[in-house]
Amino acid sequence: MKDNHLQDVSFDFIRYANCWEDADILLAGMNVLKGDKILSIASAGDNVFALLSKGPQQVVAVDISSVQLWLCELKRAAYRRFDHGDFIAFLGFIPADNRIAAYQSIRDLLSAEAQNY
Predict the structure, then answer these.
(1) Cβ atoms of residues 21 and 47 within 8 Å
(2) What is the DSSP letter of 98?
(3) How far is the C-alpha of 19 from the C-alpha of 42, rounded, in Å?
(4) How far apart are CA 18 and CA 46, in angstroms?
(5) In whole angstroms, what is the distance from residue 54 CA to residue 95 CA?
């Protein structure tokens, strides 16, 4: 019998805004080298970005949820455009002056699907 348990799962909202796994343990265990090509579950993107910090040739992030992929896209856009303080404020780790204005300033870096979400 085929297991259809995912048919009842809603994928229309962010389930994981941040990963709480220890990225240092992940990086030590993976021993990422410069030429590596890595496949990772996207989730909230935190582990994917940690893996990228080691300079592999490629990291491919996959997820069953498009919403989680769009969150990764949003974080990537914020990382590209904001300085460290603005980045962590945008993500909610410290108070932010105006997240809507911050979002508007990075919206052009997002796919149409991520923008629509």
Answers:
(1) yes
(2) -
(3) 10
(4) 7
(5) 29
C-alpha–C-alpha distance, residues 107 and 117, integer Å: 11
Max Cα–Cα distance, the chain, nearest Å:
53
At residue 61, what is the residue type? A
Confidence of residue 2 (pLDDT cuts 50, 70, 90): low
Model pTM score = 0.88
As given in the structure block, the two tokens for residue 93 are 């780790």
Q: Give the chain's radius of gyration (CA, Å).
A: 16
Amino acid letter at 101? A
Q: Are 102 and 109 in contact (CB under 8 A)?
A: no
Task: Please report how the helices 99-106 and 66-81 are oriented relative to each other, as an axis angle in degrees rounded to 10.
Answer: 90
Q: First and final CA of the chain: distance in angstroms?
A: 35
- Residue with tokens 């990764």, as numbered in its chain: 72
pLDDT band at 21 (very low <50, low <70, confident <90, very high): confident
